[in-house]
Amino acid sequence: MDLKLSGKTVVITGGSGGIGRGLVLEFAREGANVVSVDQDPGDQLIAAAQAQGLAGTVFPVRADITQRSGVAAMIAAVHERFGPIDVLVNNAGGGPRLAPAEEMDDEAKQWISAINMDAVVNCTLAVGEDMLARGKGSIINISSNASLSGQAAVMNVHYGAAKGFVNSFGKGLAWEWGPRGVRINTIAPGWIVPHSGEHVQGPGSWWNKPALKELGRPEDYDDRLASGELEKKGGIPISRVGRPEDIAYLAIFLASDVSSYITGQIVSVSGGAYMP
After folding, report:
1. What predicted TM-score, i.e. pTM, was given to this entire model?
2. Structural domain boundaries enclosing 98
3. Residue at 76 is within a domain
């Protein structure tokens, strides 16, 4: 099915992380002009898109989206290169480390709030100006199962709470902006693993956090699942490792006009780990 995203301008924050890379490349495969916003220069994404012969363009922009000034500069760069923005994917987020809630220090909590909450608000309101002026647009927020399930938030409570804000912000704004032609939906990933450690270049990605090295190499996850080592996959109905493209496929659908009667929804992509 042609979802008619060719030539559309899609802004994806956190584009060089695991899920972000999948989003960038799959939207480019659809022929979109993809703006990858991150602190990483994005050279690897451009090379991967060229190597795969993808129809779309990958345009990296370095910006601090936790600051309104950084978002304004990013928007200006996108307008200069492509014009108005059609789709926004608020993917940037994460936590600095896994720890009991009472052990998370103020600096870590502030960072969690900045990247998971402030960045989403900053980007949404800035890109919203394009969409509201034209009376159309799709915004997709990437949340987490940690915002939906207490079990999924264990050792990551502050992160789960911040993503809970994203869920509520998206629903409230979907109600406000729906009559004005802008749709907002949320994807809540479960345990999503990049295909390779080389696919995670962003310094902000939690796969690159020293405290999380104990999780092991992404390349080994299929074998670890088969051996029964992965406790996090126990009892999940679809017993395979979730990959970045699993998130991207739903995002592409929600970005397209095929989903034009869908807004304000939260969908868990987790192999059935969360069922409301």
Report:
1. 0.93
2. 9-269
3. yes
Instruction: Check 159, 221, 249, 274 and give the catalytic one.
Output: 159
CB-based contacts of 147: which residues, under 8 Å, 6+ apart?
153, 160, 161, 163, 164, 166, 167, 188
Task: Say how many C-beta atoms besides its own lie within 10 A of residue 107's C-beta.
Answer: 9
- Beta strands across the sheet bearing 9-13: 57-62, 33-38, 9-13, 87-90, 137-142, 182-189, 266-269
pLDDT, tens digit, 9 for 90 and up, residues 221-267: 666 766 666 655 556 899 888 899 999 999 999 999 999 999 999 99
Q: Which residues contact 56 (CB under 8 A, 6 or more apart)?
A: 6, 27, 28, 29, 30, 31, 32, 33, 34, 49
276 domain-assigned: no
Degrees, nearest 5: CA angle 245-12-155 = 70
Number of folded domains that form the chain: 1
CATH number of residue 254's parent domain? 3.40.50.720
What sign has the CA pseudo-torsion 14, 17, 23, 26? Answer: positive
The question of whether 249 is a catalytic residue gets the answer no
Which of 51-60, 93-102, 189-198, 256-265 is the least confident region? 189-198
Backbone angles phi and psi of 218, in degrees to 5? -55, -35
Residues 6 or more apart whose Cβ sits within 8 Å of residue 264: 170, 171, 174, 175, 178, 184, 185
CA–CA gap between residue 260 and residue 270 (Å, rounded): 24
Asked, for residue 197, whether it belongs to a domain, the answer is yes
Q: Are 241 and 79 in contact (CB under 8 A)?
A: no
Give a yes or no: residue 4 inside a domain: no
